[in-house]
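Recall that a protein's primary structure is simply its ordered list of amino acids. Everything else, from secondary elements to tertiary packing, is in principle encoded there. The following example makes that idea concrete.
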Amino acid sequence: MDSRKTLVDRAIAFAHPERVPVVFWNCDQTEGDVMLYHLSLGRPGDGDPSANSWDWSVNEWGYQLESSDDGTMGYPVEPYWPELPSPDQIAVPTLREEDRMAAAPVFFVECGDRYRLASLDLSGFTVYTLLRGFENAMEDFLIAPDRFAAVMDSILDFECQLIAMAARHGFHGIHFADDWGTQNGLMISPDLWRRLFKPRYRRQFESAHQAGLDVWYHCCGDLIDIAEDFHEIGVDVLNIAQPNVVDLDEVGRRLQGRQCFMMPISYQTVSIQGTPDEICAEARRMYELLATEAGGFIGYVEEYGCMGMSNENYQACGEAFQRLNAGMLQHAARTSS
């Protein structure tokens, strides 16, 4: 029997895992094969770093998220930088390695043989929009490209420091959370994304690989126009976070057998409004479109009571991926007999 870490490695590498790995994201993590460690911090002195938690109110970069008291991370109140700073005005957070790693020893014990995934929490362009405000960020690309580049590169360079730190401390993968899609397409044109962001992400992902880490990339919205780009520049696990707005048939035609996916049962539709049988059918549908018998699929379970998910449906999401596992074992038994 493979360790849970080896199981995840095999799924990513299309090396015939014994079953579909499952990630329980925001609670019950020890029920799954991956455990998540948070790298983001608030301002120095805020909170208890040994708890490996951040209350999402004020980030170390300075932006603030206002709580909605509904279980979500909150929403931005106002731009932290209403005026785009010049390069000499950019205040990059310090590494604070001792604070960031304070909870790691307990985490590693709890992790056991599971895959250790360090998360940047919010990253890249998403951090840029929270610092500048979304409308300002959209204007910066065209109105002030040099100053945009200085800020964006400062964000990514800082994240590369965190990536190197995570590798030093024994993590297996690094998780980026950086949304690019709306409900019906990208926030900017694919050509502009490829010109401004693709080379930057390529360098960042290469630094992760050079440090020995797998790259896990989360993206909400419809990212189909750049899904192949993410594969090309080194994303090992692509989390299509809103499968209900993405043409998964087309994604599968382009990337099945080449890209490993981490997929949730849609927390906008099926996992909220569906029956347990419909949840199970959706897990099977996504698996058949995106995975192969050699691997390429990781199940993702997140508790979303704030969106109206019942406990029954939360449990059904985990069970749906377990049923996939049962199907794989039955297939393996048939083919070996």
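The first strand starts at residue 22 and ends at 24. The CA atoms of residues 23 and 196 lie 32 Å apart.
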